[in-house]
Amino acid sequence: MVWRTLLSVYYLAGIFVTLVPLYWWQVNVGGILIVEDSPFQISLRFLGAQLEITNLVNAALTAFRVYLLIILAYGLYSTIKGRRFLNSTLFAVTVLYMIEPALFFVIVEVLKALGQLPAGYEPIFIGTTSLVVTQPDAVAVLAVTFEPTEFYWVALAVAVLYPIARLSLRLNERREKGTTKT
Amino acid sequence: MKLVALTAGALVFVALGYPYLNASFVQHSIDQPMREISELQNLQYTASVIPSNMSIVMHVYNPTDFPIVVLNVTAPGAKSLEPVTIMPESNGTVVVKIYDYEELFYAYVNNDFYMSVALRFLNTTLIVRGS
Q: Which of A110, A163, B43, B47 has its CA 20 to 30 Å from the CA of residue A180?
């Protein structure tokens, strides 16, 4: 059955993606703030120093990694045994990561609206833009870079297997229903 | 299965996050960015600068290692001014134009003007000159 093969590959590759300790995205705000993250780990460097809050955030993200690993391993086991087990968590987080630049833009806009950050920039998805911070005596122009890592594309390629496997499963179920009726 | 996975995740979070799950750590870590900024402002260089038109030109070596410059301009008898935060350009040049600093100007004509520059990294070579 095609769906079983696709789903098995999705779960197996998903376990690999979950285990590999590589970041998915990097956001660099003029070298002052450098954020590297994935759904399973994060690094926040401010003025060259690692922010301590990342220890706590990483504990939560590692917990999520363990949760997902168990789900994916069970999914793989069930699928190999021929049972139907579907879990879209990895697919969802991978696709949601595409909105990271948009999320960053919203945070800057909210801080600007609250009067906490006299700054603004043209929104972009991938690449470099300029964040202009206006102060009474100076205007600081910071290069802001949004960059997915190569490993993010690997994770996205794995995630894409999920809807394909589901489609294949649905077609198979429809076919089986048709066969039962006749 | 979800319950097992959730329990395992919760246990991992408690095991790894235990040292950090207290109010003082959270407060300490939330304050950290402000402490970094304070540290940056405490590392001061002083230089005798006589800027004829109240603008300052600096050259920062290794600008990539030195992403931020905070100028904290003061003079005897003058009020402290708001620190000026600015990015060096890729060639390391920083130009800061100081407008309407009347008190500093009077300090300058009284020949007792000085400027202190707060920097992030002490090992960065810095030349300051007036223009």
A: A163
From chain B, pick out residues whose CB is under 8 angstroms from the CB of A55: 17, 19-20, 29
The parent domain of residue B58 ranges over 43-131
| Pair (B80, B121) in one structural domain | yes
Instruction: Nearest by CB to A60, from B8, B13, B96: name it.
Output: B13
B115 and B127 housed in the same domain: yes
Residues of chain A with C-beta less than 8 angstroms from the C-beta of B96: 137-138
> What ipTM does this complex have?
0.78
Domain count, chain A: 1
- Chain A nearest C-alpha distance from B110 (Å): 23
Cα separation, B21 vs A63, in Å, equals 14
Q: A66 in a domain, yes or no? A: yes
Whole-model pTM: value is 0.69
Share of chain B above pLDDT 90, in %: 7
